[in-house]
Design goal:
The protein folds into three domains: 59 residues, no CATH class; 31 residues; 42 residues, no CATH class. It contains three helices and nine strands, in the order βββββαααββββ. Strands 1, 2, 3, 4 and 5 form a five-stranded antiparallel sheet that branches. Strands 6-9 form a two-stranded antiparallel sheet. The C terminus is likely disordered. By secondary structure, the chain is of the alpha+beta class. The relative contact order is 0.09. 32% of the residues lie in helices and 25% in strands. Strand 7 and strand 8 form a beta hairpin. Helix 2 packs across helix 3.
């Protein structure tokens, strides 16, 4: 399970409350407080989507515009030396500073997004003999048993292009 949910342009958190024995979260990156909770991951996603629908409907009833998480505009504080270096580099590339920064962020996101993380949830029981480790280092179940636990396998891809 990921620690964020996405739906209709909104992003929400996924948190676990051991004390309350539930999953819960809130919409991220907006000033309004919108929360949701459930007992299972599938139900949490449904509650997340229902919370967004309720938020949008409530805003409509109140005659206000629902806030969106990201407007596309933000301020960056980088200090005067880096600011000057960026302006000079942008000018040398024939770009406006905004285009230079957009390209730099895009390049970084391309590198970040070129790594996929796969979470495989497999049975784990006190009898490890129920499992085999194959040559790709993935754990797979041999027998059908009740389980708890997770195996996280991370695979890096070189490119999505």
């Amino acid at each position: 399970m990921s620690n964020i949910l996405k739906y209709n342009g909104y992003v929400g958190s996924v948190e676990v409350s051991i004390e309350d024995n539930c999953l819960h979260g809130k919409l991220l990156f907006i000033k309004d407080v919108v929360t949701y909770e459930a007992q299972s991951p599938g139900d949490l996603e449904k509650e997340f989507q229902a919370a967004i629908a309720d938020y949008v409907e409530t805003c409509k009833e109140l005659g206000i515009e629902p806030r969106k998480p990201c407007s596309g505009t933000f301020n960056v504080r980088i200090g005067p030396v880096m600011h000057e270096q960026a302006v000079v580099a942008a000018t040398m590339d024939g770009l406006y500073l905004n285009d230079f920064v957009t390209t730099a962020i895009s390049d970084k996101l391309d590198r970040v997004n070129s790594t996929e993380i796969h979470h495989h949830h497999y049975p784990v029981k006190e009898y490890i003999s129920n499992f085999e480790i194959d040559t790709t280092q993935n754990m797979r179940m041999v027998n059908d048993v009740d389980y708890i636990g997770q195996l996280h396998h991370v695979r890096s891809e070189t490119s999505h292009h």
